[in-house]
Each structure stands twice: as C-alpha cells, then as structure tokens.
Automatic annotation (TrEMBL):
Residues 194-233 are annotated as: Disordered. InterPro entries: DUF1707_SHOCT-like. Residues 1-53 form the DUF1707 domain. This is DUF1707 domain-containing protein. Residues 205-223 have a biased composition (Basic and acidic residues). It comes from Streptomyces parvus.
Length: 233
C-alpha cells in the first residue's frame, strides 16, 4: 500500500515523541526521520516505529487500524518545547533572510530588515522555551511571520508610515499546551505581517479526511439504516 503524506507526518510525530522521551538518540532519530519522509509504502514506514510505543498505547501501527492521526502543528507541543536554540536572530540589508522548516527559535529572537526582507516560519519550528519573544524591526523593508493556527501568538508591534499587524488567517483554535509567542517591534516605511497558515502537508491531510468522511456518509446512505441497502419503490 502506498503511504500518504499524512501517514508519513504521523510517523515523524511518533519519532519526535520517542526522542523527547529518550527512547532514541539524535543520530538514530535523524536517520529514521529521513527514511520516514522518503518512504513510499507502508512496508517502509512500519519498521521505523515497530519498537516504539504510540502515545497512550503499547504499539504504533500504521494503516486502517492505526489511531486517529494527531491534528495540526499542535500534535506534539511537549516534544517541541525545550532544547538549545539554533537561531536567535536574523539580519537583512539590501538582501533577505529565511528561517523555516525544523529549527529551534530562541526565547528572544530579533529580526532586522532594512531595504530588504525576511521570512520567519514557525509552523514546523521547535521552541527554546514556553514563552518566546520575537522582535521585528523593518525599515523600508518587510518581515513576514507565518504561524500555525494552533499556536498562541500575540502581536504588539507599531507601524510608522508602514504596517505592523496580522494578515491572513486560515482559522482554528489555539490548542492547550501551546507556547506563547509575543511578536513586538516596529515598521518604519515598511511592514511586518503575521499570517496564520497551515503547511501544504496539513492541508492535504485535512482534505483527505473530509473526502473520506463524505465517502463514508455516501456509503452509509446507500446501505440504509439497517445496513441492507435502500429499497426500491
């Protein structure tokens, strides 16, 4: 059976949980994570978690008998809080910077862009602490922060002949256990925007869930309440 993006992401979350609990060392975690994201079939995914317990269970199955997939970027906050920061700041002058993918945000992160721009993507990031402050300063430039809808984000910046505020929002509720991220600073003749947006993999997973639910409702409707199919008139 071919593996979907949602199944690969669920296996990745189980591996992150295992390394957070000390069941895997970092070298083994990195090897398994790489194999998980390149796996094409269930047969390639299953060996990666066969010796690991799923959260709240004693096994970690893949496929139809597996537990419901963890939802959104909030799936594993405990494993994503703590550890050493991989970046505490970014600078752009007549150029740009980018922080995205799997990186660890410092408890105080400072970003500066002048006649340039930068992107700070928090959707797959880890966090050095439960309380994070991101300071953004844009002078005739722009900084874009992208956060998952489940993350607790507070925007307190100031725009001077520019803009500092929240942009697009895909909707969703802040989840319990989420880090608290405060975004402050100012934009002078420039802009700082904060968007709430899911990753492509998460959007695909939600789409697959909706399609599967519609198909199940359609099937039940054809079978009728007694499971024997609708009677012809």
């Amino acid at each position: 059976m071919r593996a979907s993006d949602a199944e690969r992401e669920r296996i990745a979350e189980l591996l992150r949980e295992a390394v957070a609990e000390g069941r895997l060392d970092m070298d083994e975690f990195d090897q398994r994570l790489e194999r998980a994201y390149t796996a094409r079939t269930h047969g390639e995914l299953e060996p990666l978690v066969q010796d690991l317990p799923a959260p709240g269970t004693t096994v970690a199955p893949v496929g139809a008998s597996a537990p419901a997939p963890l939802r959104g970027s909030a799936a594993n906050w405990p494993a994503r809080i703590g550890g050493t920061a991989t970046s505490k700041g970014a600078f752009a002058l007549w150029g740009g910077f980018e922080r995205k993918g799997r990186w660890t945000v410092g408890r105080l992160f400072t970003a500066f862009a002048m006649w340039g721009g930068g992107d700070i993507d928090l959707r797959e990031a880890n966090f050095e602490d439960r309380e994070i402050v991101i300071r953004c300063f844009a002078i005739m430039g722009g900084i874009r922060v992208v956060a998952p809808p489940e993350l607790n984000v507070e925007v307190k910046g100031i725009g001077i002949m520019g803009g500092f505020g929240e942009g697009s929002n895909e909707g969703g509720e802040v989840s319990p256990g989420s880090p608290r991220v405060q975004i402050t600073g100012f934009a002078l003749m420039g802009g700082v925007g904060v968007d709430r947006k899911r990753t492509k993999a998460e959007r695909r997973r939600l789409k697959e869930e909706r399609e599967a639910e519609l198909e199940e409702r359609r099937r039940r409707g054809l079978e009728g309440p007694d499971g024997g199919g609708r009677k012809r008139l």
